[in-house]
Specification:
It is built from four helices and no strands. With about 80 residues, it is mostly helical.
Length: about 80
């Protein structure tokens, strides 16, 4: 998947999981400040990403994620086979 495809996929996932308006989401949207995702929601997101990709983001990587773009960049570093 390209970064653009990953971005669309992540936005769709966030909109579905947290009942967000896709049109209000941007790469710079902060998961916590802008989207009101709390620590429990972040864990749910991490679990869902693992289920969908088959690969768990390392806890130290996930702790650094703040924006939608951070999620996309972290996922793009996984091998394509892990995102199939």
């Amino acid at each position: 998947m390209s970064k653009d495809e990953l971005y669309v996929w992540v936005v769709d996932l966030l909109a579905q999981m947290f009942e967000l308006d896709k049109s209000s989401l941007t790469p710079q949207s902060n998961l916590y400040a802008d989207l009101d995702i709390d620590s429990i929601d972040a864990v749910d997101l991490a679990v869902k990403l693992k289920q969908l990709t088959g690969k768990r983001l390392a806890p130290e990587v996930f702790k650094e994620i703040r924006t939608i773009e951070d999620v996309v960049n972290s996922l793009s570093e996984l091998t394509p086979e892990q995102l199939a």
